[in-house]
Amino acid sequence: MSEEYSKYGFSTRAVHSGVNKDSLYNSCTTPIYTSSTYYWNDLTTNSGYDYTRSANPTRKALEENIASLEGGVGAQATATGMAAITTVMHLFVPGDHIIAGNDIYGGTYRLFADVFTKMGLRFSFVDMGNADAVREAITPDTKCIWIETPSNPLLNVVDIEAVTAVARERRLLTIADNTFLSPYLQRPFEMGVDIIVHSTTKYLNGHSDVVGGCVVSKTKEHADKVAYIVNALGLGCSPFDAFLVLRGVKSLGPRMEAHQKGAMAVARMLDGHANVEKVYYPGLESHPDHELAKRQQKGFGGMVSFDIKGGRPAAEKLFARTKLFQLAESLGGIESLIEYPETMSHASMTAQARLAAGISEKTIRISVGIEDPQDLVADLKQALEG
Ligand SMILES: Cc1ncc(COP(=O)(O)O)c(C=O)c1O
Question: What does the alpha-carbon distance between residue 281 and residue 303 come to, in Å, rounded to a whole number?
Answer without folding.
Answer: 7
